[in-house]
Fold this sequence. Notes:
The complex is a heterodimer of chains A (about 240) and B (about 325).
Chain A lengths: L1 H12 L4 H24 L7 H23 L14 E4 L2 E4 H23 L1 H11 L1 H6 L4 H23 L11 H14 L4 H21 L5 H15 L10
Antiparallel strand pairs in A: 1-2
Chain B lengths: L1 H8 L1 H19 L2 H25 L8 H17 L4 H23 L4 H21 L1 H4 L5 E2 L7 E2 L5 E2 L4 H23 L2 H11 L1 H6 L4 H27 L1 E2 L6 H14 L6 H16 L3 H18 L3 H15 L5
Antiparallel strand pairs in B: 1-4, 2-3
Helix pairs in contact in B: 2-8, 3-8, 3-9, 3-11, 3-12, 3-13, 4-5, 4-6, 4-11, 5-11, 9-11, 12-13, 12-15
Amino acid sequence: MLGAYIAFYVVAFFNMSYWLSIVIAAIILGVLGLIIYRLIFYPMRNGPHANLFVAAIALLMILESAALLWFGGETKWLILPYSNDVIRFGGMSLGVQRLIIILATLMVMLGLELFIKKTTVGAALEATAQNREGAMLCGIKVTQIAAMAFAIGTALAGVAGVLIAPAVMILPSMGLGPLLVAFSAVIVGGMGSIRGAVVGAFILALVESLTSGYISATYSLVFVFAAMILMLLIRPSGLFGKEL
Amino acid sequence: MKTIEQLRSSPWTAWLALLLIALIVPLVLGGYLITILTIVCIYAIACIGINLLFGYTGLLSVGHSAFLGIGAYAFGLIAIRFGLGFWPSFCASIIISGIAGFLIGIPALRLKGHYFVLVTLAFAVIINIIMMAWIELTGGAAGLAGAPRPDPIPLPWGDVIRFQSPLSMYYFILFFLVIIFVVSYRLINSLVGKTFIAIRDDENLTQSLGINTMSNKLVSFTISAIIAGIAGALFASYNTVISPDSASFMKGVEIVAYLIIGGAGTLAGPLVGPLIMIAIPEMLQMVPEIRQLLFGIILVLFIIFLPKGIAGEVSFLTSRIKSQPRNV
Lengths: 244, 328
């Protein structure tokens, strides 16, 4: 949501390029993520998991109502010069913005995978996820790693917001639906697997578009969540996750 | 003086005094306050249900708005479509929300931690979409009008309680709040309640003692769903109009938030939380956006600094004061 707003203001108000807004959104939201982590999640890092969840929802309430007060409740549209361009390829037609989204997703996926598998910091991140105490004993600064992971997460959410901005209407309440679907995608794909998250997102998106095309558009979200619940019942750890 | 000391040490005295205040205050002050207190009572009932599940069994559900909605719609639909009276519809709605809780509890409780919370959330969203989209049954976004008020109760001396005035509805709902409060108190102090607490504190250890934790969790989940369903049916009867908005997933989050602010796992928490978090913003007549902003901030501050909630911190402080030797 904030990413989409940043894109809107960067492009429509300051007349800067859309590509620049991706970088700006990533930086602003990465920093915001660090601040949020330090203020809210760091003090309660040893508390029960349920509290983290409630705090996250409280944060959603805060950001959403702040955006409503700040940006106003009316819908905003981000129109780019190539918004209506379509590439025809064989029998398919594909909007340019959608192509950009697909390419950007692949780039982010590859980049994250390389970052985690090939760099020392990435290895530290994985170690922290696997065994917090063990990572601590190895001299990894666990809280710094957690803060960094949080900042990467918020920065990527910002990038996603910028990417989706030209394709949808921009509203303060636009974040919740994608958030729930993103959670479901991570569950279907398996927590702790980047490939899993992408594959899970693809599966759920297929479920959503196929059911809205062939059954009913209003119920498509029902089918998405039903697919998630089904996945949890059959294999709680998800497609690519390790056995629980 | 001894009797006063005994009275003070009896836990029931404080509760009875509170009940007396709840009975008298609306009579004296009246007006808009009755409406606010009625809403507080409905949320307090739902909070008691969540308290059993989250505060005592340790299972967080942010999706109990679904059971509020199921209770409300089951009550309204049975009363309107089948033309049944208040009490048959009310009993049926309780049974239906219990069955719904049981059926969703079976798959959901196989999961732990975040996964369980997410399934309850997804369930609430699904139910809300069905309420919006199944227009033939639920009336869609416009909602369902004409849910009945309770049947008039004839009194022995010839008068009749008709449940048309806000005050009579307030007493009716307060009556249910008291019953559910006493039932939950008895439950928590029973063997079942002790088992819930054991599961909350250490599920693996509880299981190793030969206790079937799954069936106990299912009992806790079903009871909390039934209580949420009662709150939903009471709301439907009070409001007479039921809309999908009254069971949006944010309502489920709000119930949990009231409970955490009031104090999860305490008896007073489900009463204190809604009272403070509903009554104060209503009296200050806050703009909804500002209310939501402050609500979020207060919730975060409570989770960080006062995770036991108001009731939890107060009882912690009083026990500290009592345990300290007095230097007289």
